[in-house]
Specification:
This protein has 168 residues and is mostly beta strands. It has strands at 2-6, 11-13, 19-25, 32-43, 51-63, 69-70, 72-77, 96-99, 106-118, 122-126, 134-135, 144-150, 155-167.
Length: 168
């Protein structure tokens, strides 16, 4: 099954302040692995000389943080419809997917921060087949992960994470 989680509205970034813009939290005892297939981000802005940083982060979920609201998520591939956010059943994965954190969740660790992209531009980073990071990571406890964005100037941004769901 393949899903894409995305910010369905602009996320306002404050100058020089990292913000978890999209965050996925599996339920306790989650019985699947989530493998990242693609991440993307877009920074609005007319100042081309400033670069925005995009980081794929994992989290211990020691502190929940304060999210702005629920983010959107759609199933884009799979032989049967299974809701990413409905309660854990035969038709639901039970994921919590939020956006625009005003207080950061903890403890966040950057897994990948490959790109600084100019404001006013976008980037999409695809992982070759079965090489994307998997959550929970080996030895990882929670499996929570997300995208943290930083801009040196105040701008709006949007981002997405496309992920595959598989059995452990």
């Amino acid at each position: 099954m393949l899903y894409t989680a995305y910010t369905d509205a602009d996320v306002a970034l404050t100058a020089a302040t990292a913000k978890t813009s999209l965050y996925l939290i599996p339920p306790s005892g989650f019985g699947y692995n989530l493998c990242v297939v693609e991440v993307g981000a877009e920074f609005e802005g007319a100042v081309q000389a400033t670069d925005g940083l995009v980081e794929l982060v994992e989290s211990t979920a020691a502190g929940a943080g304060t999210s702005g609201s629920a983010a959107a998520c759609k199933q884009i591939r799979g032989s049967r419809a299974i809701s990413p956010t409905a309660a854990v059943t035969a038709t639901g994965l039970g994921l919590t997917i939020n956006k625009a954190y005003s207080a950061e969740p903890t403890v966040l660790s950057a897994m990948y921060s490959p790109f600084k992209i100019p404001n006013g531009q976008s980037m999409v980073w695809q992982f070759p087949l079965d090489t994307g990071p998997e959550f929970p990571t080996p030895g990882g406890a929670t499996g929570a992960f997300g995208l943290r964005l930083t801009s040196p100037i105040a701008v709006n941004a949007r981002c997405h994470i496309t992920f595959a769901v598989g059995w452990r």
